[in-house]
Amino acid sequence: MEPAIDIDRLMAALNHPEIREAWNNFLQVLFRFLE
Description:
Order of helices and strands: HH
Structural class: mainly alpha
Shape: elongated
Strand content: under 5%
Low-confidence stretches: none
Radius of gyration: 13 Å
């Protein structure tokens, strides 16, 4: 039985420059909110 999420495909998607940039922006906003 395969996992619902393919980790290799997920990591490849997260390595996409646009997604990485969006994720970084999200984290910056999150950390600013938590300060």
